[in-house]
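Q: What structure does this chain adopt?
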Amino acid sequence: MSSAASPSASPSPSPSPSPSASAAAPASASATSETEPASFNQWVIDEFRANGGTVGGPFEGSDLLLLTTTGAKSGTSHTVPLGYVADADGRLLLVASNLGSPRHPAWYHNVLAHPAVQVEVGRTTYDAVAVPAEGERRDRLFEEVVRAEPGYAEYQAQTTRTLPVVVLDRTEYGPPAPGGGPRPVLTVGDKLLEIHLWLRGQLQRVRDDAEAHYAAARTAPGAPTLPGLGLQIRQHCLAFCETLDFHHRSEDAAVLPQIELHHPHLAEAIGRLREEHAKVAVLKSRLVAHLDDFATADPAAFLAELHAIAEELTAHMDYEESVVLPILSEIPLPSGPHPADA
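A:
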């Protein structure tokens, strides 16, 4: 609801470098190791942004993107240039090769802890959820990567660890504007709707995936039972929970006090919104508990918690929009024109 709250709760791209200059670069790009000085990493980032995604030197001709993650331990923003391969459906794939090192690169640990990321490709920037592929899907995607960039097979041969293949699932914020394209976000009210649309969409995505996963586990006689919840459900659900938490904390700290101050007649409604935030926080904590042990979690119990938070949160967002949206729609975002000038 706050103009500072991103729908994905991922940080804005930062010049802070990652220790790995190109942990997933193809062999043709003369990739560097995690011991490469941060200044080189920063040079790649600066040249990428200055030239619309084109980088010279050892990376000339390579397909590069910038991935901004949140540190698993530090909680701070990290941007790293990485090589990528597009799969048959156009999704971008990253390989956590670390040049064949026995250790996963730092950015991979970051996306496991905080799946919501920001991606820069060429001159386009968008939010995504980073999802490591599993089992047969991982093997199939790795084969696609190797067909495009054979150097990754060499990296795999250098280490006993299975190189993770990470799919960047681009996030969508709801229906497009009339005539196509994204809906303009000019006011704080527009921002609220954008965040709510993202939360509704991501929640539905997790519900659909969890229900399909559970149904497959119950209706496949003779086939191995699907374990736990799987990384795809875990990553999207964690991104949803982290975004929801950030959004409500931002509202409680900044937006709701201002509405209460300038519109005292809404004090009772604001009190109700705060109470609902507390209820949703409890439900969210119970949901996250399943994600801590996602590989062995009970899908039926997870679905029950998911339905509970969906019911409570949907009602909360409906009420919030009915109460505060008219007010917030009159407040322009700092970077956008006033609605009357649009």
